Amino acid sequence: MVCYHNEPGFEDQKEAKDIELIHAYNLKIQHETIRISVCDRLEHFLAIKRVPERVPEQSLLQRPFLSPSYHPKPYLPPAASTASKIKFSLPSSSAPFLASVTTTTTTTTTSASSSAVSTPTPTADTEPAVPAVDTPPASSADEPEPEIDALAATVVTATAIAAAVASTSAPVTVAPASISHILPGMTTASGFTQPRYATTHSIGPEFEDASKRLFLCYYENYVETVKAEKEKVADGTAFKKMPFEGMGNTMDGCFNYAALLSRLIRIQEALSAETRGWMSDSARWISEDTTTAANLKRQYEQAREHFRDVTDATVEVSLVDNNPFVWEVVVFGKPMTHYDGGLFRLQLLFSDRFPDVQPRARFLTPLYHPHVTESGVPWYRPARTDDVKTHIVALARLLDEDPSPDPLGHVNAAASRLCFGTREERKEYGRNARRCANRSVEYNV
């Protein structure tokens, strides 16, 4: 990983020390990626209940992806004067995150017993308040506006608005473009300190489904990684702080691979239960003659005719119990390939939300391939996600074409190491693939 080399201060470190720090940095990045980007996200999508994380309040902005049950009170700065203008001009380096923020709040004068803050108006009996000698004069419009940190600007601006609302009963005017950008992981308005995964209303079914399908593809790699690192790092070991961490940019915490492993297993079980639920619900979808049921019936007839008319077709398609939501596909290995003479059965299970939710594919016959997990989950890309025929074509090409060197699709670690290894390792991969094709016939008898 080269992310450590891109951090500030790396050029000031000694080579020997950098090697140690790079390893420590990669370990905690890997741990937190699985914990946050994988476990937290999938548990939210699947509504899996988990124990909330205990995160100190000062770490709130350092970790935007917190447990949905964790909502600390935002810091409210002292209330401003009755006619105050809060204006922040940020440096150009902060432009991608925040724009220049201008908020003008105007409050009406209230009685002396009111809790709202107001500026006393001078009368004939009272003299205007004179600032103390040590008090610096108020800045004028001609003076340069102060530049502040982008993160601080976001917090102060949002909390200043909240403070103005809380300190007066009069209407508060906020320009629509007062806050044009929010830091990643935060939401606007009163929930600006809430984690992103606590309010995911903007995430569509396509993103949620893609996250689930990718988890099924990489699940075995996740488990293998967690088990391997668990033997190297004891749970409870604190993350090593990097030289460039500080000033609100830190990653605190400790390793807990045992918890990660149990969370990964629960997510996989929940996804398997969800897929089984599609099969049980399909009877109701068929009886209700839903739009998806009619669509899949029509696509099945078109796909069967297509593969029957193609002379060099190596695919047979059928429905399980005449159920349009459960397809069975048989792929025959082509001559002059590693899978020559092989016969591989796979199953496609559909949700009633297809094509927004893609089918769950799984090889029922063991297939030794870099793009197929040991449990039979394939990594593939159809030409059109709404056309089942293109899904089948993409799956059949796994046996016809050489595996892609793109590591994104290497979901079988053992097969990938041999397939893209040395010359002798590639020979061993070919022997394993041909052995798999020979056994496939016996497996389907």
TrEMBL record:
Biased composition, class Low complexity, residue ranges: 105-124
Domain named UBC core: residues: 294-442
InterPro entries from the UniProt entry: Ub_conjugating_enzyme (IPR050113), UBC (IPR000608), UBQ-conjugating_enzyme/RWD (IPR016135)
Record keyword S-adenosyl-L-methionine present: no
Pfam family name, one: UQ_con
Transmembrane residue ranges: none
Extent of the signal sequence: none
Region (Disordered) location: 105-145
Superkingdom, taxonomy of origin: Eukaryota
Record keywords: Coiled coil, Ubl conjugation pathway
Coiled coil residues, start to end: 286-313
Keyword Disulfide bond: no
PROSITE patterns for this protein: UBC_2 (PS50127)
Name assigned to this protein: Ubiquitin-conjugating enzyme/RWD-like protein
